[in-house]
Design a protein that fits this description.
With 226 residues, this protein is α+β, with helices and mostly antiparallel strands. The protein has two domains: 56 residues; 107 residues, D-amino Acid Aminotransferase, Chain A, domain 1 (2-Layer Sandwich). It has eight helices and nine strands. Strands 7-6-5-8-9 form a five-stranded antiparallel β-sheet. The chain has a four-stranded antiparallel β-sheet with strand order 1-4-2-3, with helices on both faces.
Length: 226
């Protein structure tokens, strides 16, 4: 009911004023399977992914990657864990009733980038207890970093494919394959928290960006994204 009202309101407003991160774009944060499929089809580097409610298929996928697979419930708030025997023992009866996302485990270095209008305005590496998979609520320290041009271009391209004017992008660097894998695109990416941590005024950058969109007839990407 509430989602229907939101769609109606945004659709009505979209006919008269620019709408940034409309509901179609914002829903990509919840439509993980479609998000990964779309990005992979466009040549963006994402981990191998299986969405299934079949335990046998899930186990076969885990074996195909030598056990290096994580399990993600289809909700953004749930913890990401290894898809090991303890996971299947705990969730074997649940999987047939509720599909899980099973994804290639990328182990190396964890990053988040903040993107506004196609530009990377800030990025950082997170350090946490690596006995866990999920770094949320476990950050021990962080470092503000400068990304390589190739990585920035891949992130900007992925954000544009998803139609997001601004978002936080979580990604990992695999020290084995030496590749960056894009994992998550969050329109509500704790902007105030990162502003305080990194010393960058993201709210002010967002205001400047919103004014740019208004002045440029609703165009949501800067001309020069570098």
């Amino acid at each position: 009911m509430l989602l229907g009202l939101q769609f109606s309101l945004v659709s009505i407003l979209g006919g008269t004023i620019p709408v940034i991160n409309d509901l179609n774009a914002s829903l990509f944060h919840k439509l993980k399977a479609y998000q990964y499929h779309l990005l992979h089809a466009q040549g963006v580097t994402v981990p191998r992914t299986l969405v299934t409610s079949c335990v046998d298929r899930a186990r076969a996928f885990v074996r195909s990657l030598d056990g290096r697979v994580v399990a993600k419930p289809n909700t953004s708030a749930a913890e990401v864990v290894m898809a090991d025997e303890s996971f299947f023992a705990k969730n074997g009866a649940v999987i047939p009733e509720r599909p899980f996302i099973f994804q290639q485990f990328v182990s190396g270095r964890s990053y988040r980038a903040y993107v506004i209008g196609g530009r990377i305005v800030s990025a950082g590496e997170f350090f946490f207890d690596r006995t866990y998979v999920d770094w949320r609520e476990r950050i021990e320290r962080y470092e503000v970093v400068e990304l390589e041009e190739e990585t920035e271009e891949q992130i900007s391209r992925a954000v544009e494919i998803l139609g997001l004017g601004y978002c936080a992008v979580d990604f990992e660097y695999d020290t084995v394959t030496r590749k960056y894998y894009l994992l998550d695109f969050n329109p509500g990416g704790l902007y105030m928290g990162w502003s305080k941590m990194a010393g960058v005024d993201i709210p002010a950058l967002l205001v400047d960006y919103f004014l740019f969109v208004l002045k440029n007839g609703g165009r949501i990407w800067y001309d020069n994204k570098a």
